[in-house]
Write the structure tokens for this entry.
Amino acid sequence: MIKKRVEYNKMYYGFPVILVAYYDSENRPNITTLSSSYSLGEMIVLGFGKNSYAVNHIKEGIDFTVNIPDSSMMKEIDICGAYSGHKSNKFKLSNLGYKKSEIINAPIIQNCPISLECTPVDVIENSFFESYVNILAKIKGRLVSDVLLDDNNNLIYDKIDSVEYLGDDNLRVYRYLDKNKVHHSKSFLKK
Ligand SMILES: Cc1cc2nc3c(=O)[nH]c(=O)nc-3n(C[C@H](O)[C@H](O)[C@H](O)COP(=O)(O)O)c2cc1C
């Protein structure tokens, strides 16, 4: 393999698209599309541009939900990633439905098959990366569509239809999972 050094400003090597939903300071529900997230156990970390309407509320300590859309929701994903809550109510723009979480003060997007109920525990801002704000949060609850669960409430992984976001400075794309191909994690160790 020959590797070329590339001088990109950004490179997304494949991140799941998520929709973050919250009530703003006027108690109005809103949504932002993100791809910058990771989760370990009960911890979740989200990366926002510092001008995001969403992060300017969440950094004050308000609850939010992380909702995993599927490939039937591409228009809504684009709408919530193109308009800002500074000017728009994206629940109205996208026609997405919500109901309030039973355990935190945040809206759950009904159309998304997976939703995580989260409370922020820290805000990470660093002078090296002045344009970004990272939110560290605790996952307090997880809701999963019954269509994605077997009789023991285990995930049916090949039915999860999340969307990946990837690309470079030049072009960024959505990629869909090939639902017919899956390998068990660690299964390659035996070969
Ligand atoms: C697929 C996709 C992924 C995105 N990922 C992020 C992200 O990880 N962090 C971020 O701050 N903005 C991200 N954006 C851009 C925001 O969604 C966009 O700036 C939005 O208008 C911010 O809305 P807000 O001001 O209401 O928070 C993404 C947009 C799209 C379409």
User: Anything to note?
Assistant: Residues 17, 32-36, 47-49, 52-54, 78, 81, 83-86, 165 surround flavin mononucleotide (CB under 6 Å). The mean pLDDT is 95. DSSP finds three helices and twelve strands in the chain.
